[in-house]
Amino acid sequence: MSPQSWFSQTAARLRTANPYVVDAALAALVLFAVSLQWLFPDQGNDRLSWQGWLLGAATAVPLVWRRRAPFATAWAVSAATPAMAVYHAPPPDVMYGGLVVLYTMAARARAWQRRLMLVGWVIGATVTMQHKEHARPFEYAFHLLCIACAYALGWLARLQRAYTTELEDRARGLERERAADTARAIAQERALIARDMHDILAHAVSLMVVQAEAGPVVVRSDPERAEASFDAIAATGRDAMAQLRRILGVLKEEQQNGTSPQPGVAALPQLLRQVGESAGLRVELHTTGDPRLLPADVEVAAYRVVQEALTNTVKHAYAACSTVELDWTEDLLTLTVTDDGRGPAAPGGGHGLIGIRERAAACGGSAEAGPGPDGGFRVVVRLPAAADRQAALG
Predict the structure, then answer these.
(1) What region holds the Histidine kinase/HSP90-like ATPase domain (predicted)?
(2) At what angle do helices 137-218 and 223-251 cross, to 10 degrees?
(3) 94, pLDDT greater than 50
(4) CATH number of the domain at 268-394, out of 3.40.50.300, 3.30.497.10, 3.30.565.10, 3.30.390.10?
């Protein structure tokens, strides 16, 4: 294992360890360092006393609380260190506890607290060095350099912690945004599926109900017509199943394997024939302007709004005739579905008209519904037919 890798792993373990255990171990290490002169008294000529050892211990023991009460710890060590230097039995060769509290203050304290400590220790170290016997000039530089290095290391640790916190906050923010985007996409997809399922099933079931109600009426008087009604029910059911398979195929990403695309404007004549044959409703199609290819979502929306409008006509209007008009202009496709019935029973138009408005709005278009100028009911949907939808709508 390389030294850099070992250092990185050790630093990671210290960050995740219990802070009180780490601080107690650090205080014990500093206490051991200041006790070396008592452990090896023959290695120096300094005067030793138990009062001097107590002052040295006072520079180490408060470090146990350096993270719980950093400012109070700094004051305790700051008072004990010059007292030990003045007592001179022995004088401190290295300010171990002071270096630790300067690092802690620079890393964790408020701005005024860490600046006060830095200035105080620089002045205090300079003054106390004057009380040391035979102090040489390089010792001043050594102590001041130690103070500056300890403070700089704490300041760098503070910057790194702030940078790490910012990165973590940004990552959490991105995760929340990603989760919100995913939730919105799921909600939009569910709404789209619900609209498609409603359009397909409501259209098919309404036609099947009309034919099923007509079958028993003519089963004895006109067997061929009754047989045609039952054939229409079967054909409508097969068509609904085919469209449901297309939707499920899209959900399972089977379009790449040959699943048929969603129906568009080109499939409207077939839809009108089916409605006319199945429901006994006379449906006419009128086209003005030059038809052209539309964006995929607009194609599907055009087909579905016409399908839903005709379904509403069959279910609610009790109409005999319905007209579908396609008006192509340079920027818009206007779909108008009118009938000679009495309109929907619900004041708000029911879920069908809500689905029409939602489909139109999803494509950047608009929808209106209400009584026709000559009676009956009319649905008008405007869909963008240009590449630039904003320009098309206004």
Answers:
(1) 297-387
(2) 170
(3) yes
(4) 3.30.565.10
